[in-house]
């Protein structure tokens, strides 16, 4: 081998047949018809084996003269080679194309490499931009082996005379059909036609040969499905809206009208393969068009939302609303159910919600393989690349308790994000690169080629059904108007929008093509336009009827039989929830056992199970056993329970242990809760990925599917819910107000100030209380159904009720093992047979309430600190302590009773949280509404602070002692005014 001064392993990277490392890309010029290229034209002189003048030598000498004259990948390559040569090696000389010691590659090897290079990098030269001004991969350089036919010949050490010679085709390719040899000219033509035209394929990173070959066969031997009518309705729908409501925001689909036939193709093809239920999620762009032409919502229902007099029909703008519709699929003549999930302006926030709803629908149908229920997610290019929840959602796709067996992702690639150029919005070549983390194939397609789009979508639907894996369709398009119809895009993208203004709409472009081919006549085309326009005009006339406006038309998940026909609860009563003692005992016994034989558990866990057995025998329960009994009793009644989150199987604080692990057999587990009764409902407890945003969204969607299930998400620490704040703010707190969306999701948020630092203390109850919708100044009328009516009117809480509300529970940490934090069986089935909104004082102070000097109201863990301090100071008769178990909605009636019970007592609110956090700002005005200024309630707790807790243990204990001293200093408030 000649001494090039470059390590031998690098020389193989320069050969025409070696592939130890990808060769750097040379400056690329556009293939014929590709616009927007930059950089000097590349020429490829014929390479000669054994050295001599070659293209690579020219590159090398050019680099020596000016490193900036070559592409950055070559600059990096030559720079590294020179650095390595400096370690005692000979002065580097220009490397040859192949090492002298190796013979020139055979024709078959060259052909294999030619095919391989198109497979791997053909998408870089595909003509994807309908405007012809941008490169979809943000790079104006083309790989050196994919520029022009002449360049290809030089790169592979071939001559122009070889173009008409027959070459043996690799056995892995399908471009030859039944032929085993083709001329080199035809091989190049077919490869370019497949991989370098209006479809760009990224799939060779998939590490499954069968899957790669499946994709190759689909695209190397393709067919097309032309359809003019599929494009007509979305285009004319947008034109109609623009004529009628020119000054209204519509977030229209102009520039990507092909998305409608794309979605319809995916749905139709999936229906052919047995899918009965499709759940869609999408941002606002094109939503009205999807409602009209994919879901087939009545047009008058859409048009009436533009009437400002009828806007009271929903709590959100029309392009955020959802829909549920059962209909016949016209292509397959089969029943199909379509749901479009409501979504806020937070774009990708709906992604995990759709996945959770899909998973639930599959679960309730027994569809373990996803052959009946599937999801489709529509994305924008900037959001797909920029929103982290997209990545979180992808990472749920193959997890056993979260997989939906494949999702079809459709990216509406506007090549702009609001006003931001994609070159300033992402670092990856494509907006879709995040999908590569799960080996999802990515099909880029020029959205101005409807036939290519329809074929790609058909293949995507087949892929999902065949392999049960995600797939991405990237519709490279443009946005004809600004971010919305009122926005001026020329401020920031003048050159792009000059081209867009000249761009012929895809409907006209495609219609002209079909008319020229004789597929349709001009008269037939115009008649179809007139027909659709008449349909829109007639619906517009009907839209003025106020009777058509009803909330039921915008539900994305109706619960048949759960509500009355008008959407109201069937009753406003709260049934008793007590559990018979024999049921409690049975659940306790199972909770303390290992139902499987020959199952070896950890010795430490054996002590925990013995502790449960001892509590059951003594008829007491701590928090963990109480949770076990609550879940178990629901399972007995046929209620499915699902608990999800980080480390929930064991529990963050090693208290739950709902999944037992065999200490000697890998992955052998046991869930005793699923062994309670032969005909019980299933219990699902599953550790999640290390995600809050994605997983909480998933569980919210799961809870959306059915009212007859208990779905819980637990944060590892309550503090961490802030990473999922978008789901809490946009879906949980406001979902019913915006979208008439009842939901029974439960959030378990471990909370408590225990000296563990600012990130492991507070679940931020003040944030939830701030978002609660009960009025602090409105004194309610205490009617017979006040308790239930108050719950129905609020925006979150849930117990066993004829409606569903989200529930936020601030769960304990140290109280999990506190000896006083236990309850008796008696309280479960005799005393407390319904939720206790307030737990009054039951000690010595109750015997002479008129003698009580101070009544302390509190909630949570601080109660046990107060009880201990009261006992230490001997103030059991002078101080009463009342606990608020339901903070919001505020229990006005019971608080009033408690305050009146102790007429001579000062009222104190005590909390362990800082004054500007926790509950004080919420409860204070409500106490004033009940009692007025004549009887104030004083604050006792920590001073205001920026951080929720200290990280210093001693500081924590000092501040605890300080506010406890204040709480029981009966002279503390003398002489002060409210």
UniProtKB/TrEMBL annotation:
Keyword presence, Iron: no
Q: Which Pfam families match?
A: 2-oxogl_dehyd_N, E1_dh, OxoGdeHyase_C, Transket_pyr
Per the UniProt record, which residue ranges are transmembrane?
none
Q: What is a biological process (GO) this protein takes part in?
A: glycolytic process
Judged by the first EC level, this protein's enzyme class is: oxidoreductase
GO terms under cellular component? mitochondrial matrix; mitochondrion; oxoglutarate dehydrogenase complex
Catalysed reactions listed for this entry: N(6)-[(R)-lipoyl]-L-lysyl-[protein] + 2-oxoglutarate + H(+) = N(6)-[(R)-S(8)-succinyldihydrolipoyl]-L-lysyl-[protein] + CO2
GO: which molecular function terms? metal ion binding; oxoglutarate dehydrogenase (succinyl-transferring) activity; thiamine pyrophosphate binding
Region spans: Disordered? 17-49, 88-109
Question: What protein name does the entry list?
Answer: 2-oxoglutarate dehydrogenase-like, mitochondrial
Write the lineage as a comma-separated list: Eukaryota, Metazoa, Chordata, Craniata, Vertebrata
By which gene is this protein encoded? OGDHL
């Amino acid at each position: 081998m000649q001494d090039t001064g470059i390590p031998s392993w690098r020389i193989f990277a320069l050969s025409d047949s070696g592939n130890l490392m990808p060769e750097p890309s040379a400056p690329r010029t556009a293939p014929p018809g590709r616009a927007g290229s930059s950089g000097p034209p590349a020429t490829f002189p014929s390479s000669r084996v054994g050295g001599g003048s070659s293209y690579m030598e020219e590159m090398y000498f050019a680099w020596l003269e000016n490193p900036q004259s070559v592409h950055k990948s070559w600059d990096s390559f030559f720079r590294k080679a020179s650095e390595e040569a400096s370690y005692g090696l000979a002065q580097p000389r220009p490397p040859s194309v192949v090492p002298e010691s190796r013979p020139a590659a055979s024709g078959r090897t060259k052909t294999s490499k030619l095919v391989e290079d198109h497979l791997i990098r053909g998408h870089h030269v595909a003509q994807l931009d309908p405007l012809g001004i941008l490169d979809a991969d943000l790079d104006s350089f083309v790989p050196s082996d994919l520029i022009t036919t002449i360049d290809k010949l030089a790169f592979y050490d071939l001559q122009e005379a070889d173009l008409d010679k027959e070459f043996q085709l690799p056995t892995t390719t399908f471009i030859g059909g039944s032929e085993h040899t083709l001329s080199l000219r035809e091989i190049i033509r077919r490869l370019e036609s497949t991989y370098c035209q209006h479809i760009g394929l990224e799939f060779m990173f998939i590490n499954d040969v069968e899957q790669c070959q499946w994709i190759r066969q689909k695209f190397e031997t393709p067919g097309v499905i032309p359809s003019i009518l599929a494009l007509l309705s979305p285009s004319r729908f947008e034109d109609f809206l623009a004529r009628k409501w020119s000054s209204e925001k519509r977030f229209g689909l102009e520039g990507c009208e092909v998305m409608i036939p794309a979605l319809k193709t995916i749905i139709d093809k999936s229906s052919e393969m047995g899918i009965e239920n499709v759940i869609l999620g999408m941002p606002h762009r094109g939503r009205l068009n999807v409602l009209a032409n994919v879901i087939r919502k009545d047009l008058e229902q859409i048009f009436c939302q533009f009437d400002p007099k009828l806007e009271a029909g929903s709590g959100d703008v029309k392009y955020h609303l959802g829909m549920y519709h059962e209909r016949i699929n016209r292509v397959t003549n089969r029943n199909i159910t379509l749901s479009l999930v409501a979504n806020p302006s937070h774009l990708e926030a709906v992604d995990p919600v759709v996945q959770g709803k899909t998973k639930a629908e599959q679960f309730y149908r027994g569809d373990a393989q996803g052959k009946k229920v599937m999801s489709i997610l529509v994305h924008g290019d900037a959001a797909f690349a920029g929103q982290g929840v997209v990545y979180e959602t992808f990472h749920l796709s193959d997890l056993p308790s979260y997989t939906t067996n494949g999702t079809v992702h459709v990216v509406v690639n506007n090549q702009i994000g609001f006003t931001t150029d994609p070159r300033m919005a992402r670092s990856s070549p494509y907006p879709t690169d995040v999908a590569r983390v799960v080996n999802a194939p990515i099909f880029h397609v020029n959205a101005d080629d409807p036939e290519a789009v329809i074929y790609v979508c058909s293949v995507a639907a087949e892929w999902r059904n065949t392999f049960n894996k995600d797939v991405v369709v990237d519709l490279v398009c443009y946005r004809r108007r600004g971010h919305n119809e009122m926005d001026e895009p020329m401020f920031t993208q003048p050159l792009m929008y000059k081209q867009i203004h000249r761009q012929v709409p895809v409907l006209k472009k495609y219609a002209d093509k079909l008319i020229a081919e004789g597929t349709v006549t001009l008269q037939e085309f115009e008649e179809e336009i007139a027909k659709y326009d008449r349909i829109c005009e007639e619906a517009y006339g009907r839209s003025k009827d106020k009777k058509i406006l009803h909330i039921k038309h915008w539900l994305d998940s109706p619960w048949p039989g759960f509500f009355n026909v008008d959407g109201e609860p069937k009753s406003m009563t709260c049934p008793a929830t007590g559990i018979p003692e024999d049921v409690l005992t049975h659940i306790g016994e199972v909770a303390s056992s290992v139902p499987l034989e020959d199952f070896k558990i950890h010795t430490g866990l054996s002590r925990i199970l013995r502790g449960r057995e001892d509590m059951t025998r003594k008829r007491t329960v701590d928090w963990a056993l109480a949770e076990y009994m609550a879940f178990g009793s629901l399972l007995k009644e046929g209620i499915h329970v699902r608990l999800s989150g980080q480390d929930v199987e064991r529990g963050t604080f090693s208290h739950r242990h709902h999944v037992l692990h065999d200490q000697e057999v890998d992955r052998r587990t046991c869930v005793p809760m699923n062994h309670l009764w032969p005909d019980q409902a299933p219990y699902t407890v599953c550790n999640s990925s290390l995600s809050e945003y994605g997983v909480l969204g998933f569980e919210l969607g799961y809870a959306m599917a059915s009212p007859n299930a208990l779905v819980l998400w637990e944060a590892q620490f309550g503090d961490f819910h802030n990473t999922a704040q978008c789901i809490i703010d946009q879906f949980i707190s406001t979902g019913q107000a915006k979208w008439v969306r009842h939901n029974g999701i439960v959030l378990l948020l471990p909370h408590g100030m225990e000296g563990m630092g600012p990130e492991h203390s507070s679940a931020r109850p003040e944030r939830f209380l701030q978002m609660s919708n009960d009025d602090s100044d409105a004194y309610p009328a205490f009617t017979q159904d006040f308790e239930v009516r108050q719950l129905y009117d609020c925006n979150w809480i849930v117990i066993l009720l004829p409606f569903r509300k989200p529930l936020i529970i601030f769960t304990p940490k140290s109280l999990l093992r506190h000896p006083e934090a236990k309850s008796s069986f008696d309280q479960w089935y005799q005393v407390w047979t319904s939720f206790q909104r307030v737990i009054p004082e039951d000690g010595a102070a109750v015997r002479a309430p008129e003698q009580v000097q101070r009544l302390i109201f509190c909630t949570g863990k601080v109660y046990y600190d107060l009880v201990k301090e009261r006992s230490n100071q001997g103030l059991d008769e002078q101080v009463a302590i009342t606990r608020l178990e339901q903070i919001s909605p505020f229990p006005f009636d019971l608080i009033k009773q408690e305050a009146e019970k102790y007429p001579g007592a000062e009222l104190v609110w005590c909390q362990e949280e800082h004054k500007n956090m926790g509950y004080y700002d919420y409860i204070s005005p409500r106490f004033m509404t009940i009692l007025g200024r004549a009887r104030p309630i004083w604050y006792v707790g920590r001073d205001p602070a920026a951080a929720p807790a200290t990280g210093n243990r001693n500081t924590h204990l000092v501040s605890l002692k300080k506010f406890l001293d204040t709480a029981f200093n009966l002279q503390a408030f003398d002489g002060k005014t409210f």
